[in-house]
Amino acid sequence: MHAMTKIKWHYEQMTSGIHVALRSEKELANVETEFQDVSIFETRHLGKVMRIDDGIQVTTRGEHIYHEMMVHVPTLVHNRVKNVLIVGGGDGGSAREILKHHGVEKVVMLDIDEQIIELSREFLPEINNGAFDDPRFELRIGDGAEIIPQYSNCFDLIVLDAADPDGGASETLFTQSFFNNCLSALKSDGILVAQGGTPYFEPYMMQSMVSRLTQAFNNPAGIYMGGCFDYFGGSHAFIWATRSGTINTLSLEEIESRFNKADIQTKYYSPEAHFGSFFLSKDMREYVNQAVKCENVDQLSMPEAGDWDDYTPETSHL
């Protein structure tokens, strides 16, 4: 008779009635930090996975798509990025990508939880890939909502690479006053980008940020889309905001020329992917237009959550 093998499954509830489950092949770390529960484990198809509280944050197989699109699109649009602020981003992927640009002089990363950086250094070195030791990199530990007001007219690019705002450690980052402070910290021609989640499951998150950023910047914010296979639910939305104009004005030829000049290696990002990411489907365009016009985010319809399922089995027997 075969011995029973216990298999550990990591469940994430996407919305009421939808769970995704990742089977762990090997548990690497399980830590309760001052702010959140963190587990890192190996999977068969997504590589190593970092889960924070109840959400998949990053996978070694899929993170390059997210980090490359988040960073290279605004950097090549701006084309003179020297000083960058990353809020969150404790795995180091965003820092790794921005530091590929030779013109970048300073990257300040704000994270509330120092243990995330330590765990990423130890268990996910391929994601930060030396970024934390780059002389241009500066780490500040603390609440972004309290630290950002210390900066004024400093940054060419702000990257909000924080977890979804649903009661976790990043909850203070998605308020109107926070976005107003981001505006003050940006230079006049600066660009802000933020992750907006997987909008087919949760359009409210993307819409509420587009609405708040439109008001803070007094200029319509927008989104571009990237592929996504570590957060289930189709594409990933990236939100952008600037003081004037839009960031989708470059021709494909111009993007190609800037990309070639930047001389960086990517796995997903290409000039075509950049150019195409601004062409939105009809439903996404309508979501964005609705959010831009909305003056009170409470009017944006929260998805009908129904009852959140309390069924999250930890193990199964083979």
TrEMBL record:
Binding site for spermidine: 67, 91
UniProt keyword annotations, A-Z: Polyamine biosynthesis, Spermidine biosynthesis, Transferase
GO terms for biological process, alphabetical: spermidine biosynthetic process
Catalysed reactions listed for this entry: S-adenosyl 3-(methylsulfanyl)propylamine + putrescine = S-methyl-5'-thioadenosine + spermidine + H(+)
GO molecular function: spermidine synthase activity
PANTHER family: SPERMIDINE SYNTHASE, SPERMIDINE/SPERMINE SYNTHASE
The protein's name: Polyamine aminopropyltransferase
Source organism: Pseudoalteromonas phenolica
Gene: speE
